[in-house]
Write a structure and sequence with these properties.
Length: 53
Amino acid sequence: MKSEENKRKQKEEIERARRQFLANGGRVRHVDPADAGPLQDVKPRKQRLKMFA
């Protein structure tokens, strides 16, 4: 039961991220200021965004 809930939450999270990504014009460089860390954070983020590209 719990894993069902987690899967659904994860799906929603991914959907939200994909929409945000597309809203940004699909540019990897632009990061929402809210979750922009130091610049060396860009590389792992690039990898994460690959699944939306």
